[in-house]
Amino acid sequence: MGKIIALAALIAGGWLVYTGYERGQSLAGKTADSLSKLGQKIDGGDHMTDQTKYYIGGAVLLVGGAPGLGLVRK
């Protein structure tokens, strides 16, 4: 059961990273990047784009699922 959950986490993590990449390359992603940079210059606050959230979520799932399949030695 644990290997199935780890495999599902790896698949979901890969999908999220791919989705973040596709979003970053699209017109909507480039617009979000530009507006994020503009917002940082205006108010100095941190503005995280959707593709960045996809990358972070995907990385967490990939790192969490890798030990469950034995890809990383403990």
Outline the structure in words:
The protein has 74 residues and is mainly α. It has one domain. Helices cover 77% and strands 0% of the residues. Helix 1 crosses helix 2 and helix 1 runs antiparallel to helix 3. It is elongated, with a radius of gyration of 16 Å. The chain starts with a helix and ends in a 9-residue tail after the last helix. The model has no long low-confidence stretch (mean pLDDT 91).
SSE layout and pairings?
Layout: H1 2-25, H2 27-43, H3 50-65
Entry summary:
Helix content is 77%, strand content 0%.
Task: Note the main attributes of this structure.
elongated, 3 helices, 74 residues, mainly alpha, 0% strand
Amino- and carboxy-terminal Cα gap: 19 Å
The helix-and-strand class reads mainly alpha
Overall pLDDT level: 91
Major beta sheet summary? none
Q: Which runs of at least 5 residues are low in confidence (pLDDT < 50)?
A: none
Number of individual domains: 1
Categorize the overall geometry: elongated
Please count the beta strands (DSSP E, at least 2 residues each): 0
- Helical content stands at over 70%
- Taken in chain order, the helices and strands follow as HHH
The percent range for strand residues is under 5%
Instruction: Specify the oligomeric state.
Output: single chain
Number of helices: 3
Rg over CA atoms, rounded to whole Å, is 16 Å
